Amino acid sequence: xxxxxxxxxxxxIADKKIVDWTYxxxxxxSTGCAIEVGKNEQGDVVGxxxxxxxDVNRGKLCVKGIFEHxxxxxxxxxxxxxxxxxxxxxxxxxxxxxTLDHTADEIKRIQKKYGRDAFAVVSTGQIFTxxxxxxxxxxxGLLGTNNYDGNTTLCMASAVSGYKRSFGSDxxxxxxxxxxxxxxxxxxxxxxxxxxxxxxxxxxxxxEKRDFPLIVIDPRVTMLAQFAxxxxxIVPGTDxxxxxxxxxxxxxxxxEDKAYIKANTVGIKxxxxxxxxxxxxxxxxxxxxxxxxxxxxxxxxxxxxxAMNIWTMGINQSTHGSDGVVGLNNLSLVxxxxxxxxxxxxxITGQCNAMGTREWSSCSGLPGYRTLENPEHREEIGKFWNxxxxxxxxxxxxxxxxxxxxxxxxxxKGLWLIATNPMTSMANTPRIRKMLDKLEFLVVQDxxxxxxxxxxxxxxxxxxxxAEKEGVMTNTERRVNMVRQxxxxxxxxxxxxxxxxxxxxxxxxxxKVKFSDTVAETxxxxxxxxxxxxxxxxxxxxxxxxEKRGIQWPYTExxxxxxxxxxxxxxxxxxxxxxxxxxxxxxxxxxxxxxxNNERPDNAFPFWLNSGRLVEHxxxxxxxxxxxxxxxxxPIPFMEINPDAARQLGIEHQSYVRCVSRRxxxxxxxxxxxxxxxxxxFIPFHFYDCVNRLTLGLLDPHSRQPxxxxxxxxxxxxxxxxxxxxxxxxxxxx
Length: 734
Ligand SMILES: Nc1nc2c(c(=O)[nH]1)N[C@H]1C(S)=C(S)[C@@H](COP(=O)(O)OP(=O)(O)OC[C@H]3O[C@@H](n4cnc5c(=O)[nH]c(N)nc54)[C@H](O)[C@@H]3O)O[C@H]1N2
Ligand SMILES: Nc1nc2c(c(=O)[nH]1)N[C@H]1C(S)=C(S)[C@@H](COP(=O)(O)OP(=O)(O)OC[C@H]3O[C@@H](n4cnc5c(=O)[nH]c(N)nc54)[C@H](O)[C@@H]3O)O[C@H]1N2
Ligand code: SF4
Ligand SMILES: [Mo]
Prior knowledge:
The chain has 734 residues and is an alpha/beta fold. It has four domains: 18-73, Phosphorylase Kinase, domain 1 (2-Layer Sandwich), CATH 3.30.200; 82-155 and 353-562, Rossmann fold (3-Layer(aba) Sandwich), CATH 3.40.50.740; 173-347, Dimethylsulfoxide Reductase, domain 2 (3-Layer(aba) Sandwich), CATH 3.40.228; 607-730, Beta Barrel (Barwin-like endoglucanases). 32% of the residues lie in helices and 16% in strands. It has a seven-stranded mixed beta sheet with strand order 5-4-16-15-14-6-7, with helices on both faces. The protein has a six-stranded mixed β-barrel with strand order 21-25-22-24-23-26. Strand 1 (18-25) and strand 2 form a beta hairpin. Helix 3 packs across helix 21. The longest helix has 19 residues, at 96-114. It is globular, with a radius of gyration of 25 Å. The structure holds ligand MGD (2 copies), iron/sulfur cluster (SF4) and molybdenum atom (MO). Residues 155, 350-351 line the site of molybdenum atom.
């Protein structure tokens, strides 16, 4: 029998007559796929393809990478700098000098009147590492505000905090190749097929070759859960309880790796005492996973030769985000699974360069995983930059999620937003709107002038996007990848690197603080500063990175000269006993009592609200909303609701409904699916004026990351579907 297209004409891919391919790296997610952009004879950019000999993606791309070349002249791009005195006025087009002069004057005015910290800077995980490093020099070395952070607080802060608490330093210890060695994989709150499609492909290929159990922990039946051997549909926000009960079984049955624990860790006694209270029967009542399943999973995991834990936002975006990461590190350490092929505790990062900002931006510290709290680090960087070390604060300032409330209280008066869109991406946006409105001066630096925050800005700086500029990015597995320039910046936009340097000049009249002329020379500064650090990359150059299709750190000068390491650099961290970043070299096992502090469903708001992502869209859709082939799959906001729950409320498939929380409301289309539990709904966060009008965003005490994944809502059926459709239309920007 013939299926599908076999009887019809085969699909013909139009010949785009590409004559020239340029190597670069995808600018969406943290997978780090190598991509080539093709031009035709006229020099027009007309296509992309995956790079065959790149280890990360081996020729593959997902639906975002395939259409990425359509970004360059997509609608809404920033064409020219914009200025206005008040946000009630229209913008006028201005030139770069005028706009940067005015921006510098306003920063100086605010800092003089209210103090240095009254001007805050919030950056991103989506520009290049050399740009992060340069921004750090401008902010820490010249502006001197301590209220400097990034959107990574919404994303990776819990992973960073958890790695530091367990291992003494940030830095994911594993790599994608671990899938090829592992005997058991637990994936926590991570939906790889949609959010990291090419990491998923690597995992699936490894599993097909050498079957190993895949255990998925997620309240939703995600695409990854459908593919799992065991799916644990956990009660939202209770992962720490499940982790503790798994440890309970491991200790009770003597399945721990005693030799590893002795050689590599401290804190086993307190951990054992804590998890003794968390037997599977007790845990079941909180996390909803039955006791037999807990025992089976604990045995499967602990008896496997090598086993790995991976996780993403289902863990990080929680009031126990940092504890969840520590809990996974506890599990990995107790079973002797760190630094081994196939045995690791690997945080799957999010944005294309979320790692680069952690390593080099100086957001919460100083470059090269240095801290403000350490006097030697302040001294080293001060000397290198020619900045008085006394100019640096002695401890980190406010996190991104504390900077916004500080606008509300009047502590922060001016703000510089770089490549982040908090009007859509932060929790409780009705409150964020009031905060942005209150600022004396807001400058937005973005590739798109139609992004929501520009509405509240006094100045707009149009930035070049992705391969309109050059620099490196670090992916989930510590691989430094090269983005080569394919086309010049759009219209009058400039690279973030140039914008930072130009603004920096206005605070550096005597040229005291030195800036490198080019991106490649800036990379050389970073190489120098990386020597002897965990993230040593002194053996790398832009050329070598391109040639090797990415190099994993650490990669020292010595390794490069001998070429003794695998040519792509350090695959794993902590491969030898007692080499963790604490002074005694030992990792910390940490007891994690569970505190139930989430907003939970009740009679008035009976549904859990869960939010996350779709494969075709990236974040707030400033980019994918403009690419027809991405946007067509889900052009309007919707929610997933269980058909039984929908029936009780009289809600039909594809009808409009109103979701209401204690913060606000949103109109979405109901999509009936068994993917979601009867007491929960899921709304993708990509749409403006939608799910984050509803979210509460309670903060994790260690990382200050918001619990985007847990809140309570009610659903109201809407009688007038025409009016609802109209409102829904008005709520989105494009
Ligand atoms: N297509 C696409 N890919 C992306 C992005 C994008 O916008 N679009 N963004 C990138 C970025 S910055 C990031 S951070 C990553 C995010 O990647 P993921 O974290 O994989 O994506 P999310 O959909 O945010 O959340 C993952 C899952 O967490 C589950 N979850 C919710 N609550 C809980 C809980 O209490 N416990 C557990 N165990 N799970 C829970 C949700 O049901 C959801 O399926 O994706 C990156 N890749
Ligand atoms: N409810 C809910 N909310 C969430 C999440 C969730 O799961 N649920 N996830 C959170 C997470 S993990 C994240 S990472 C955040 C993301 O939140 P944001 O970072 O606020 O969202 P983006 O849309 O990625 O914003 C990036 C901006 O940078 C611009 N841009 C792109 N490239 C460049 C460039 O090279 N230079 C400059 N100057 N601009 C550029 C884009 O146009 C865009 O406006 O959202 C968070 N919010
Ligand atoms: S998986 Fe991520 S890095 Fe790879 S093509 Fe897709 S969006 Fe780009
Ligand atoms: Mo993220």
